[in-house]
Structure formats: structure tokens, C-alpha cells
What does this fold into?
Amino acid sequence: MAADESRAGTGREAREAAAERAAIAVRPEEFQHGSSSKREKVFELNGVEVLYSGVSAVKGIALDIHRNDVTALIGPSGCGKSTLLRCLNRMNDLIPGAEVRGELLYHGEDLYGPEVDPVQARKLIGMVFQKPNPFPKSIYDNVAFGPRILGRKEDLDATVERALRGAALWDEVKDRLDSNAFGLSGGQQQRLCIARCIAVEPDTILMDEPCSALDPISTGKIEDLMIELKEEFSIVIVTHNMQQAARVSDRTAFLMVELDADEDNRWGRLVEFDDTEKIFTNPSDQRTEDYVSGKVG
Amino acid sequence: MTMGSERATPRNRLAVAGARATTQAMLRDQPRGDVIRNTLFAALLLLAILIALAGLVALLIQAFAQGASALSIDLFTNGPSSIRPESAGFRPAIIGSLELIAGVILFVVPIGIGAALYLEEYADKTRWWNRLIEVNIQNLAAVPSIIYGILGLSFIVRGPLDLGFVLAAGSLTLALLVLPMVIIAAREAIRAVPDSIRQGSLALGATKWQTIRRQVLPASIPGIVTGVILAVSRALGEAAPLLLVGAAAFVTFDPEPFSGGYTALPVQIYNYATRSQEEFQALAAAGIIVMLVVLLAMNSFAIWLRNRYEQRW
Amino acid sequence: MTRAGDKQAPEPAGDLPRRLRAPSPRYGEKAIQGLLALCGILSVITTTAIVVSLIGPTIGFFEVVSVSEFFGTEWSPQFEPPSFGVLATVAGTLNVTLWCMLFAIPIGLGAAIYLSEYATARVRKTLKPTLEVLAGIPTVAIGFFAVTFILPEIIQPLWPGDFLGGATGKPFMALAASLGIALMIVPIIASLSDDAMSAVPRGLREGAYALGATRAKVATRVVFPAALSGIVASIVLAISRAVGETMIIVLAAGSTPDFTLNPVVSIQAMTSYIAVTATGDIPTGSIAYKSVFAVGSVLFLMTLAMNVISIRLVRRYREVYE
It folds into this structure.
């Protein structure tokens, strides 16, 4: 633990991160609500910085993401929360000129280590996007796509059914598995994308504003789903909707835009990372309080 | 797209100047004059379109008027004749064209799609060599067809490939001629597949090629096929480059790919058209009718395909 | 959710290093990328081959014919002594192109403005493909149409008497080829200019309409200038097409090299010289044979220059609006 601290970012968040880790180490049971699996960390980030063509998008991020938690990343637009999310399954590799610095451990393994294959990493760490992006294929083929490319072809029907049930979509689509996925409503499409994702059997699911394109009822269904899914998966969600973060997440990270002296460059920085309840009721940082109470942003 | 003052490109300045001129003109002009002028302007525009369409209609009518008398099954079964135009036909030319086209398709489909995939999916646009390839293809699409004839003559018929004046040389020349068209059309079709599909696939742990093979290509097939059809119809109608790579006007046997002389439908039409006897003129017109019917069918199919399978994202 | 147990039974931490490694070196992926790159490079090879095939014989040509003679106006390669003044065929090309553009530009732009600013979406969806069919008609067919219809049925009856030497009784004429080519390139100008004008953002139009501008004013003073580089690009491309056109000129304009811009005479253009000479019985390596390549070089350079201009202009409007 102590070794980690020296590598964390400077200032407040470093101290917080350190205090946070210490807290877990000392009395994990008291610190969280619900299950007792908190001790296992899925991601450990230390001084993570993401740059596009040499310009920082986020800097000095230090946080731990725990197994079977829903961890929410909130903050104003441009604070780099999506950027941060996309380095957790190496989707940033696809952007020319993107670069990730600092330490990013996944179950203790360096996710950006030279031996790590991003394609393999993405099988373990699934992702759901802001806008539902079903493939222009049948519902069945959408879900079966992942297992097929992984060569898991035995019992495909069962896998598809299990994934669709897992995404609470089975009852709505079981009679029209062969119809085009574009015929589904937006909310159904998004749940199909979640089903598609869990059919690959990842251990973590990243969600990038998964409800921002949906109506309130569909949003509610997906939020219920997230709470169910965290029994099995670890979930990291980016959201601009603070109520949503408060409803579904166990832990919340608040990021903010920071400017340099000349206001030429801007980047995202982690302000506070804590239990969701604490962030929304009794944040330790004034900026967090201003943001969650709606004074800024 | 930003139209703010910080992007005062010449184009924006022009547009702003245009808007300003309009506004100023508005404050001066008499509305009644406007109405007349507007109607006149619209009428002129419509006239422009009508002239172009009239040209198309006149071309079709003229071909039918002149060629109807020569339309018969002989066209498809008989070879050319310089003394008996009444029974002369296009059989070797039609077979030659079909073989040429088959070769073109075999060549341009894999290479055209390959080049398009490379440029859209793999090439780093910031590298000068990739930009060079891109500009180069755009330029090749507009190089005169006769220049491809020269290329075919000195590189395919003679020179490095040394195939001789055979049908395969003509086919390869035509393939090089239409390859840029196929690449450009395929690139557009590939670009039309939204990035969210690629990301969705990659996020499931698919490799790049799996994503291309199973998502990008299937989604862009209608656009690519449309492009290939249009390219093939261009190749079908080209005569100029074939004149240089050995398509002879007087071939009485069914051409073979790698030996002997060959001819093609447009070359045969050209030959008949340059003869002064009335019968040969009619024969040329009949050949044009055959060619236009095939081309219109292909074009209509391409348009139908595009409308039928156009994916709305 | 019974899957949780069996899925996570192997502790991820222990199994993980292996699961993050690539299961195979993925040579296939790299090979495919290489193959695709090769397809792209083939286009560069094509251009190189064009240049190489033109340069050799062209140099051979200039070993015999002086540069100053080449840029003369007398072109008679078959005469004795032969004369190789390329300007006669260049003039033939310009003659045809000039008169062609005189008709094609206004008609093409008129059609484009109509399509983009006046036609309803449905009309546009029918008219544009119909026009494009015109661009897809083989040039042999258009050449035949020019010499059997445009020349005897349009130009000769309408031509004002003896003006410029008169039009009656002439079997070939530059103007017939010009009008034929115009028929072919009007759709090119119309279609590409329509694309450029349609790419002008709606906001710009709405801004002008909000000021009370009429449709004609919006079209001519807002949209047209805003799309100018795309429009110019389409015209340059059309000129390049006209300069490179062969069969229409061979069929309708004859093959008489003449240093003139008079539209009612028979001329020979660069393309038709190449087509006619290279198909005739000319021994390989003879000076007449090499002259084909010399003329081809001039033609290639001219069209290259125009294509580059057009490509740059298109890129410029794309940068602004897309």
C-alpha cells in the first residue's frame, strides 16, 4: 500500500486515494454496504494520464474499482470521463495518436503491459455505448456474434437465451429472434447491446452514458438491470445524470475540467472518489458539493 | 463545422459577402420585378434540364429510327461482313465483350475492394504515402481512356507483360481503367458504415479483420456491388483504349482469351459507323441499341440495388 | 444468475496473465493488412507505368524532332518531309473543348441549381439518376448520334448561311463533336455541382431566407458562391473529360489537323490522332509511332494538371462543410 501512495497523483486526490486504500485495508467490512466482496479490486489506477496527440485529456487519475460494484464516473462535459472509461478496455488504442501513461492494473496485471493483447482484454472487459449500436443483423445474430468469433459455437442457442435473459430482454424478443435488431425500440436495442456484451462472458462491463439516448421508462429498466448485473459483473458507468449515479452506483468518482494558467489547455482531473452516498450527501470537497447540488456545471 | 469568425476562410467570406449583398439588394428591389425575374430564372433552370433530357431522348429515338430495320436475330448469330451488310452481325464482338467483362470483374472486384479496405480501415491518413495513394487514385479516375490504351500497348501487349494483341490484354487494360471507379465507390460504401458498428464489434473482442469481414463488408456490399456494376458498364462501352491494344474490327471467329485476334461490341459499332453505306449505318445503330439496352438494364439494376439495400443508420 | 459460480470458478487473478495474452501471433491479420496495402499500391504502380510508358518513346521522339518543331503549328506526319507541330492537334482539342464548354457550363449549372434549390426531393431523386444515365452512355453511341443527327439535323439547318465558311455539306465538324461531348459532360457538371451546393449548410440558406431573400437570390448569391470551389472543381473535371474524349471526336470531327478554333471545320484532336495513328499500320519504333507517345505525354500532362486542380478544389469545399 505504502509503495502505491508514492506513485499516486499529487494533492488532494492523492491524499484521498491513500486514505481510501487505507480504509479498505483496515476495515473493509464497515466501509461498504451490501456484499462482502469489496476487497477484491478489478482496476487500480495510479497517476493515469490520457493524451491525444501529446495533449492531455485527463491527468493524475488515481482510483480503485472493486469487484461487483457499480462505479459511476460523473462530471461536466469535457472532463474526460468517457476518455477515462475507454482506457479501461483499451478502446483508446483505436484512436490514432492516443496514449495512456501511468499505472493501470487490471486484477493486478498491467493492462498496458507489452504482453497484453488489446483484443483479449476487450473480451474480458465489455463495453456498452452511449447510442445503442446493434449490428444490422437479426436479434439472434447480434447476440451470437461474440461467441461465434470466439469460436464458442456449441450450445449457441442456450448462450443466446442466457444472455438475453440476463439482459431482461428474452420475454420481449423470444418470438422474433430472427427479425432485424433495428426493429426494436431504443431501450430494447440498448438491452440487446448489453446482452451481446454479456454473451461474451466478460468480468467487467463498461457503460458509456448508456441511457442518454433513451426515454425515462427505458432508462429505468436499464438501471434495474445494472443493479441485477452487478451480482455477477463489475460495472463502471459514465453518466451525466447525477440522479442516475445516485440510484445505481455504489461508488462515485467526480471529475472536473482544469485549465492551465493561460487557459489554453484543459484536461480532466479527479476531484473526489468515495461512496456514492457520501458524495451526494456529505462530499469532502467544496467543488463536488457545488456540482452535485447543481450550483455549477 | 464551425462558421465562426475564427474560421474566416475565403469560402466563408464569400458566403458572408453573398448574404450581405442579398440583404442590401432586398432593401432596394421592387417586389414586382422580383416575381417576374424569379419566374424567368426558374424557367431557365428548368429549360437547362429539359435540354439535357431532350438530348438523351433524341439519342435513343435516333438509334431506334436508324437501327430498327437491322434489328434481327442475325445480330447475335452472324459475324461481320464487308460485302453483305444485310446479314452481317455482332456475334464475335458480343462474345468478345462478354469475355472482356468477365476478366474485368475477376480483376477489379478483389483488388478494388482490397484497396478500398486498406485506405478506409488501415491507412493512417497522416502519412504522406497514404495521401499520395489517395490523390493518385482520384487522378487515375480522370486520366483519359486513350492513355490507358497507351499503357496497355507498351506494358501489357508489349513490354513487361508481353501478352501480345490478345483479348486478355484488352481485358486487363479495361480493368486498370475502371479500377479507380471501383475503389472510389467501395470506399464510399465502406465509409458509410458507421463507426459505432466497428466499435461495437471490437469491444466484443473481435479482431480488426473479424470486424471487417463480418460487419463492415456485409454492410457495405450493396454499395460496392453498385459501384462494380457502374464500372463494368463503363468498361463495356469503352472503345478507345481497345483500339490501341489490338481489338480489330474484322474478327469472324469467336475470340479466345490468350490467342488470336479479338473484338468488342463498341469497336465493331465504331467500325460499322465509319462506313458510308446506309446498311452499315443501320447496323451500327442496331449495335448501339443492343449495347444501350444492356447498359440501361445494368444501370437500372444498380440504382434499384442501391435504393433497395441502402442501410439507414 | 447461476452462471456467476461456474464462470468465475477459476480465480481470474491466477488465470489472468494467460487470458490477457494473444492466443496466437495473429500472422493472418498482418498478412491480410499487407495484401490490402498491396492493392492500394497497385494504383501507384499504374501511374508509374503510365509515366514510364510515355517517357521512353517520347524521349526517342525528341531525339529526331526538335522541341521547337514540336511546338509548331503544322502537323503532317505522313507527308514528306513530315512535320510534327503538335499545336495543330492541341488547337483541335481546344477547339472542341471550348465550344463544348460554351454549351455545357450554362446548361450543367442551370440543371445543378434546379436540382439543388428548386426540385422537390422526389423530383430530384428521379431526375438525377436519369441525367447520370446520360453520362453512362458509351461515347461511341454519342459520336454516332453527333454525326448522324446533331450535324445534319441541328447544326446544318440552324447555321447562319456562310458564316465562318458555312456548315452545309460538311461530313465532319468540330462543333458536332463539341455538342456530342457537351451531352456527355452536362450530367457530370450538374451532378457534382449539385453535390457541392447540397453540401452548403441549411443554416446559411435559412439565414438569407429569414432576411426576406427570394429563392433565386438565395441560389445565386448565397448558395452558389458558398459552393464555388466545388462547382469550379466539377467544371475543371468536365474540361479534363472533354480534353480526353476520343470516340466522339474521331467519329464526328474527322481527322484533318488544322490550327484553328473555327467550329465548322474538320479538325484532329490529340486523342483522335493517337487513336487513328496507333491503329493504323505504323511500324513499331518509327517516328510516327513515337509521335503517338509524344502527343500522349502532352495530353497526360494537360489532364493531370486539371485533375490536380479539381481534386484540390473538392478537398477545399469538403474541409469547409463536411
Observations:
- Chain C touches chain B through 114 residues (CB under 8 Å).
- The radius of gyration of chain C is 28 Å.
- Residues 1-13 of chain C have pLDDT under 50 and may be disordered.
